[in-house]
Amino acid sequence: MNAKRILLSSFLLISSLCSTTLVAQDLPSWSNTDARQQLTAFVETVTKEGAGFVEQSKRIAVFDNDGTLWAEQPMYFQLAFALDRLKATQDKHPEWKTQEPFKSVLAGDLKTALSSHENIAKIVFASHSGMSQEEFQQVVKDWITTATHPKTGRKYTDMVYQPMLEVLDYLRANGFKTFIVSGGGIDFLRVWAEQVYGIPPEQVVGTRVKKEFMLNADGGAQIMRQAAIDFVNDKEGKPIGIDNHIGRRPLIAFGNSDGDLAMLQYTMAGEGKRLAVYIHHTDKGREWAYDRESHIGTFDKGLDYATEHKKDGWILVDMAKDWKVVFPEVE
Amino acid sequence: MNAKRILLSSFLLISSLCSTTLVAQDLPSWSNTDARQQLTAFVETVTKEGAGFVEQSKRIAVFDNDGTLWAEQPMYFQLAFALDRLKATQDKHPEWKTQEPFKSVLAGDLKTALSSHENIAKIVFASHSGMSQEEFQQVVKDWITTATHPKTGRKYTDMVYQPMLEVLDYLRANGFKTFIVSGGGIDFLRVWAEQVYGIPPEQVVGTRVKKEFMLNADGGAQIMRQAAIDFVNDKEGKPIGIDNHIGRRPLIAFGNSDGDLAMLQYTMAGEGKRLAVYIHHTDKGREWAYDRESHIGTFDKGLDYATEHKKDGWILVDMAKDWKVVFPEVE
Fold first, then answer.
1. Which residue of A has its CA nearest to B220?
2. Closest partner CB to A269 (pick from B11, B220, B244)
């Protein structure tokens, strides 16, 4: 027991040394502006013994994905997956040649194909359901390792934001547990989030399809994906998703659109000091510049709210000004 | 970077030493019978480099709660909480004096009060909804720290199984992540699971009521609990709950009733070697003896299935024979 205690204390000593080491070299891709200073000042306050100290188990940080951890233009990457998937499986569905929206997808007429919520739902269900979880995971894995972005030619997993990868490392080095809280599909994200962000499946919260447990005669058993929505993890759904999956109010929340506003408000309404960070897409040269008028990642109410509440600890990150680098270097 | 790498490697070295230390003194309350030997043999196989090795991130262990981690007789402890809660709040509800099932609850006539699913639902909703998450957590905290078991006089948190607490420690020392997957209420469990089992809120899966996000004029924001069921995490619901919360098929699953059968079958149907453990309540002297005929923790189909599949790695724990101790010592 005594030996164990000695081992455990050196274990703790070394882990604290490790985090100090990492903290010393944190956030190299961030310019030394207010945004970076507010973030690091907050983390120092909650990790140092003293008035603002927060015990490690309560250091929960939540991140939206599309537009916050990776890019979302010219269309949500998961929608690109859905469209590619329809093309790849069209031989099994001759009926698509005459059925909308599939007909337009196969003809490359995205304007018609994506012209209504009904159409998009049909495209998503046709590409995301009617198979087991394991089959779906394999399909996503195959796509994510080969598909490339239409504008940059990069793999989608190289369209992640280098400064945000550094924030994830920095927060974990300071004892935070990092979660994705996305309007995107939970099972789509879980396939690659661990490898790309270091976030395991059990720390991914997202939109879900209905599922059914299937027991085979031979003793096999799997989860089958249904063509129906079980939960939409967006807007007011995000605080609910956080409560159901995490069960604690976050200490820090990152987002980029109006769909994240409720999550950031929920976070900031918790006891003690909290931090809400909005990534503002202002960088037309290195990425995209969009906010109020954009259909993807609409940032209007949230932009007003964050501007109004800067004094209350809301941070508005100006991509063009606050980030030295946007995307990671690729070999 | 180099300094960091040295620190990290010693970090890993020491954590492996720690787990070895713990493994050496594991499971003291378990008799040295087949059950204990099969469990430790399995854990050694998946943790030692070699054919059966499983990387740490995939070492997921799931545990039912009622009847598996703590007792469930003479009634589910959460139902005792609900009944106590009604008595404690009756002054605010004069209408209960004439309304069933509340009238019978207050008169101490449990036979009538609990005579139908409708009645039980009314009792649960009246005691578990119509308040914010924070309010509910406080109510549960107050109850769990003071209420005592009618037969033993112990606090309910002292009605946990010492051999199972040792299994939780043993598996965590061997790199497993431990989750509760309960038919009970997720928010009821999360209040005390971390202190009692070392399982944080984000690793608790359970039955949920519907919730609503509420934003106040003053900027306050909370999750309100509704009087409706959102998800029942029992029977075929358990594999779904595991998939939605954890996103990986468990390597080990523990249960005690037919409500856990689907979870254990789902676990065993995964690739490679897996382990399913059923706790059989055979100890009338130290605890309770019940299975096929019991309304609480009915163990009939599961008992047949586990007996039939012993050769496939299903373990049937005989409480009376396999456990030296049932409950922890209390100061």
1. A269
2. B220
